[in-house]
Design goal:
With 126 residues, the chain is an alpha+beta fold. The protein has one domain. The chain is built from four helices and seven strands. The strands form two sheets. A five-stranded antiparallel sheet has the order 3-4-5-6-7. The protein has a two-stranded antiparallel sheet with strand order 1-2. Strand 6 and strand 7 form a beta hairpin. Helix 3 packs antiparallel against helix 4.
């Protein structure tokens, strides 16, 4: 019985209009493009950027817009928190919000994120 369910699940790609192969992390493709321009990559139903000891996960939220989850795991400390932003932000505004949070809470990774954003050609640090 269990084996039959597994086989039937594996053979279906469409269930009620749902296609596993074409799942996008954001309902608006322009939101996903903004995060791709910042170096985020698709990770299941979210987008993720990891530089140094800090990993940032961007997830679409039905009420809050986009939620950024900041995570840092080091040998003696663990930190995780989230902040939200509206979907209608520019790439520079998103990068600015990320950098301010990194500089405030993860000072040891701030220079790496600053260098990453400068390498992308963002006009944040003039």
């Amino acid at each position: 019985m269990i084996q039959e369910r597994v086989l039937s699940y594996q053979s279906r790609t469409f269930v009620d209009g749902f296609n596993e192969d074409k799942m996008e992390p954001f309902s608006d493709p322009s939101s996903a493009d903004k995060f791709r321009k910042l170096g985020f990559s698709v990770d299941a139903l979210s987008m993720r950027l990891s530089i140094g000891h800090v990993s940032i996960c961007a997830v679409e939220h039905p009420i809050k817009g986009v939620v950024l989850i900041f995570e840092s795991i080091m040998p003696r400390t663990v930190c995780q928190y989230e902040t939200s932003l509206p979907e209608r932000c520019s790439v520079e505004q998103i990068a600015g919000l990320i950098y301010v949070n990194i500089a405030q809470n993860f000072r040891d990774s701030a220079e790496m994120y600053k260098a990453h954003f400068q390498k992308l050609g963002l006009s944040l640090f003039q």
